[in-house]
User: Fold this.
Amino acid sequence: MAQSLCKIYLHIIFHTKTTSPLVSEEHLTQMHAYIAALVKTTGCEVIRIGGTEDHVHTLLILSNTETVAHIVEEMKRNSSRWIKTLSPSYEKFAWQGGYAAFSVSQSQVNTVINYIANQREHHKKQSFREEYLQFLELYRIEYDEKYVLSD
Assistant:
Protein backbone atom coordinates (compact mmCIF):
# COMPACT_ATOMS: atom_id res chain seq x y z
CA MET A 1 0.00 0.00 0.00
CA ALA A 2 1.60 3.27 -1.11
CA GLN A 3 -0.61 5.60 0.97
CA SER A 4 -1.27 6.07 4.67
CA LEU A 5 -5.01 6.50 4.92
CA CYS A 6 -7.18 6.90 7.98
CA LYS A 7 -10.42 8.50 9.07
CA ILE A 8 -10.67 8.65 12.83
CA TYR A 9 -13.32 10.85 14.38
CA LEU A 10 -12.52 12.17 17.85
CA HIS A 11 -14.77 13.92 20.33
CA ILE A 12 -12.53 15.98 22.63
CA ILE A 13 -13.80 17.64 25.81
CA PHE A 14 -12.01 19.93 28.23
CA HIS A 15 -13.05 22.27 31.02
CA THR A 16 -11.86 25.49 32.64
CA LYS A 17 -10.11 25.34 35.99
CA THR A 18 -12.62 25.71 38.79
CA THR A 19 -10.93 28.99 39.80
CA SER A 20 -10.89 30.39 36.27
CA PRO A 21 -13.20 33.12 35.04
CA LEU A 22 -15.86 31.84 32.66
CA VAL A 23 -15.91 32.74 28.96
CA SER A 24 -18.55 35.42 28.48
CA GLU A 25 -21.37 34.90 26.00
CA GLU A 26 -19.96 37.71 23.84
CA HIS A 27 -16.61 35.90 23.50
CA LEU A 28 -17.83 32.30 23.27
CA THR A 29 -18.29 32.21 19.49
CA GLN A 30 -14.90 33.87 19.00
CA MET A 31 -13.29 31.34 21.33
CA HIS A 32 -14.76 28.43 19.40
CA ALA A 33 -13.64 29.90 16.09
CA TYR A 34 -10.15 30.47 17.45
CA ILE A 35 -9.90 26.92 18.75
CA ALA A 36 -11.15 25.59 15.40
CA ALA A 37 -8.37 27.53 13.66
CA LEU A 38 -5.83 26.06 16.08
CA VAL A 39 -7.03 22.53 15.30
CA LYS A 40 -6.66 23.19 11.57
CA THR A 41 -3.01 24.18 12.07
CA THR A 42 -2.37 20.63 13.30
CA GLY A 43 -3.64 19.18 10.02
CA CYS A 44 -6.86 17.90 11.57
CA GLU A 45 -10.31 18.73 10.21
CA VAL A 46 -12.83 20.32 12.56
CA ILE A 47 -16.34 18.96 12.10
CA ARG A 48 -18.07 20.80 14.96
CA ILE A 49 -17.01 22.85 17.96
CA GLY A 50 -19.17 24.13 20.77
CA GLY A 51 -19.77 24.16 24.46
CA THR A 52 -20.66 26.65 27.15
CA GLU A 53 -18.86 29.24 29.22
CA ASP A 54 -16.89 26.61 31.14
CA HIS A 55 -16.11 23.81 28.68
CA VAL A 56 -15.45 22.94 25.04
CA HIS A 57 -16.54 20.02 22.87
CA THR A 58 -14.75 19.45 19.59
CA LEU A 59 -15.51 16.82 16.97
CA LEU A 60 -12.64 16.44 14.53
CA ILE A 61 -11.05 14.08 12.08
CA LEU A 62 -7.59 13.14 13.30
CA SER A 63 -4.71 13.74 10.93
CA ASN A 64 -2.67 10.62 10.15
CA THR A 65 0.44 12.38 11.48
CA GLU A 66 -0.90 13.97 14.67
CA THR A 67 -1.33 12.86 18.27
CA VAL A 68 -4.31 13.60 20.48
CA ALA A 69 -2.10 15.02 23.23
CA HIS A 70 -0.48 17.50 20.84
CA ILE A 71 -3.81 18.67 19.41
CA VAL A 72 -5.23 19.29 22.88
CA GLU A 73 -2.04 21.05 23.96
CA GLU A 74 -2.28 23.39 20.97
CA MET A 75 -5.98 24.06 21.58
CA LYS A 76 -5.67 24.77 25.28
CA ARG A 77 -2.33 26.56 25.49
CA ASN A 78 -2.91 28.94 22.61
CA SER A 79 -6.59 29.67 23.30
CA SER A 80 -5.73 30.43 26.93
CA ARG A 81 -3.08 32.93 25.84
CA TRP A 82 -5.41 34.43 23.23
CA ILE A 83 -8.43 34.98 25.48
CA LYS A 84 -6.28 36.89 27.96
CA THR A 85 -5.75 39.52 25.24
CA LEU A 86 -9.50 40.20 24.97
CA SER A 87 -10.12 41.63 28.43
CA PRO A 88 -8.45 42.15 31.80
CA SER A 89 -11.27 40.02 33.25
CA TYR A 90 -9.55 36.96 31.70
CA GLU A 91 -6.21 37.63 33.39
CA LYS A 92 -6.50 34.42 35.44
CA PHE A 93 -8.18 32.32 32.75
CA ALA A 94 -6.93 28.75 32.53
CA TRP A 95 -8.07 25.36 31.29
CA GLN A 96 -7.88 22.31 33.54
CA GLY A 97 -4.84 20.12 33.11
CA GLY A 98 -6.74 17.12 31.76
CA TYR A 99 -9.07 16.31 28.90
CA ALA A 100 -11.15 13.49 27.53
CA ALA A 101 -11.01 12.14 23.99
CA PHE A 102 -13.47 9.60 22.67
CA SER A 103 -13.62 7.77 19.36
CA VAL A 104 -16.79 8.25 17.34
CA SER A 105 -18.01 5.79 14.74
CA GLN A 106 -19.05 7.07 11.31
CA SER A 107 -22.64 6.08 12.08
CA GLN A 108 -22.69 8.37 15.15
CA VAL A 109 -21.10 11.48 13.65
CA ASN A 110 -24.42 13.29 13.06
CA THR A 111 -25.57 12.46 16.58
CA VAL A 112 -22.39 13.99 18.04
CA ILE A 113 -22.68 17.05 15.77
CA ASN A 114 -26.21 17.66 17.04
CA TYR A 115 -25.15 17.00 20.62
CA ILE A 116 -22.39 19.61 20.42
CA ALA A 117 -24.66 22.10 18.64
CA ASN A 118 -27.24 21.84 21.43
CA GLN A 119 -24.95 22.23 24.45
CA ARG A 120 -26.77 25.27 25.82
CA GLU A 121 -30.09 23.39 25.96
CA HIS A 122 -28.46 20.19 27.15
CA HIS A 123 -26.91 21.91 30.16
CA LYS A 124 -30.23 23.29 31.30
CA LYS A 125 -31.02 19.68 32.24
CA GLN A 126 -27.63 18.20 33.14
CA SER A 127 -24.50 19.66 34.73
CA PHE A 128 -21.14 19.38 33.04
CA ARG A 129 -19.96 17.07 35.84
CA GLU A 130 -22.90 14.72 35.25
CA GLU A 131 -22.31 14.83 31.51
CA TYR A 132 -18.61 14.12 31.88
CA LEU A 133 -19.12 11.21 34.26
CA GLN A 134 -21.73 9.79 31.89
CA PHE A 135 -19.18 9.81 29.06
CA LEU A 136 -16.58 8.12 31.25
CA GLU A 137 -19.08 5.41 32.19
CA LEU A 138 -20.31 4.96 28.61
CA TYR A 139 -16.76 4.47 27.35
CA ARG A 140 -15.84 2.34 30.39
CA ILE A 141 -12.95 4.59 31.35
CA GLU A 142 -11.51 4.06 34.79
CA TYR A 143 -10.98 7.32 36.66
CA ASP A 144 -10.33 8.71 40.10
CA GLU A 145 -13.36 10.74 41.22
CA LYS A 146 -11.21 13.19 43.20
CA TYR A 147 -9.57 14.37 39.95
CA VAL A 148 -12.79 14.88 38.00
CA LEU A 149 -13.06 18.65 37.57
CA SER A 150 -10.19 19.39 39.91
CA ASP A 151 -7.62 22.03 39.11
Summary: The longest helix spans residues 25-41.
